[in-house]
Write a structure and sequence with these properties.
The protein is α+β, with helices and mostly antiparallel strands. The strands form 8 sheets. Strands 7, 8, 11, 15 and 18 form a 5-stranded antiparallel β-sheet that branches. The longest helix is centred in the C-terminal third of the chain and has 33 residues.
Length: about 260
C-alpha cells in the first residue's frame, strides 16, 4: 500500500481541525472578551530508508540519506491573548482591562474561574455578577439606594447613595494574571480555569506590578479579525483540496499497478 494515501489523509484531518478552529473564531467575532484560537501542527515520524552519513560499498559516505515523512497532526490549539478593540458603553457596570489581567469570579461549586468579559450586572443582593450570575471575587456589593457608581482605574468602587453627600466605598476589584495564560483551560461562558501549565493565579491591584488598568463604561471586544480568518479559511480549504488530490493520484497509481499483466 502506498504511503501517500495515509500521508495525504493525515493532512486532510489536520486541515479539518484547522477549519473547525477557524469556524469557532468566526462564530465568536461578537463575543465580549473572546480571544482567538490558533491551530498549530507538527510533522509525523519519518521512515528512514537510508541514514545520512552511512557508508556505501566503496566506503563513501552518503551525504543526505533518504527519509520519507508520514504526514502531519494537530499539535496544539493556542489562545492568542492580544487585546481586542474597546467599545464605549453607557453602562457604569461595564469594565474593560487595559493591559494584562483577568477578572475572577466564583462558580456555584466554589471553584474560581477567570474572564476578560467585563459585562457585569447586579444580583438581588446587590453584588456584581457576570451574565451567568457568578459573583466577582472578592465580592463587591453595591448599597441599596445607590444613584451612581464610579469605578476607578485601580479598581476602587464608590457609590453615591441617595440622601448622603459623601460617596460610600463598596470595595476594590482585584485582577489576576498567570505566568502562561495560553495554558488556561477554556470551559465556555467566557471563562477560563487554571491548569498545571498555566500556573497559579497571581492577584493584585489594577495598575500595579504589571497588571492592567480598569476602564469603566467600556467593554473589550473579541480580538478576531474577520478578514484574517477568511484568508486562513481559504488556505485551509485549498490545503484540504490538495491533499485530496494526492489521495486521488495515489489511487490512480495503484490502479495502474493492478492492471499490469505478465
Amino acid at each position: 500500500m502506498m504511503r501517500g494515501l495515509w500521508t495525504a489523509a493525515s493532512g486532510m484531518q489536520s486541515q479539518q481541525t484547522n477549519l473547525d478552529v477557524i469556524a469557532n473564531n468566526l462564530s465568536n467575532v461578537n463575543t465580549t472578551g473572546y480571544k482567538r484560537t490558533r491551530a498549530e501542527f507538527q510533522d509525523l515520524v519519518y521512515q528512514t530508508l537510508m541514514a545520512a552519513g552511512s557508508t556505501t560499498g566503496d566506503a563513501a559516505r552518503v551525504p543526505s540519506g533518504i527519509q520519507i515523512g508520514l504526514g502531519s497532526r494537530t499539535a496544539a490549539t493556542q489562545k492568542v491573548f492580544t487585546p481586542g478593540d474597546m467599545k464605549q458603553t453607557d453602562n457604569p457596570l461595564d469594565m474593560a482591562i487595559l493591559g494584562d489581567g483577568f477578572f475572577a469570579v466564583v462558580t456555584p461549586d466554589g471553584t474560581p474561574a477567570y474572564t476578560r468579559d467585563g459585562a457585569f450586572k447586579l444580583d438581588d443582593q446587590g453584588r456584581l455578577v457576570n451574565a451567568d450570575g457568578y459573583a466577582l471575587e472578592p465580592a463587591i456589593t453595591i448599597p441599596q439606594g445607590t444613584e451612581s457608581i464610579t469605578i476607578g482605574p485601580d479598581g476602587t468602587v464608590t457609590a453615591k447613595v441617595a440622601g448622603q453627600t459623601t460617596p460610600v466605598s463598596a470595595g476594590q476589584i482585584q485582577l489576576s494574571r498567570f505566568v502562561n495564560p495560553a495554558g488556561l483551560s477554556n470551559v465556555g461562558h467566557n471563562l477560563y480555569v487554571p491548569t498545571a501549565s498555566s500556573g497559579n493565579a497571581v492577584t493584585g491591584e489594577a495598575g500595579s506590578e504589571g497588571f492592567g488598568r480598569i476602564a469603566q463604561n467600556t467593554l473589550e471586544l473579541s480580538n478576531v479579525r474577520v478578514v484574517e480568518e477568511m484568508v486562513a479559511m481559504i488556505v485551509a480549504q485549498r490545503a484540504y483540496e490538495t491533499n485530496s488530490k494526492a489521495i486521488q493520484a495515489a489511487d490512480e497509481m495503484l490502479q495502474l499497478a493492478n492492471q499490469i499483466r505478465r
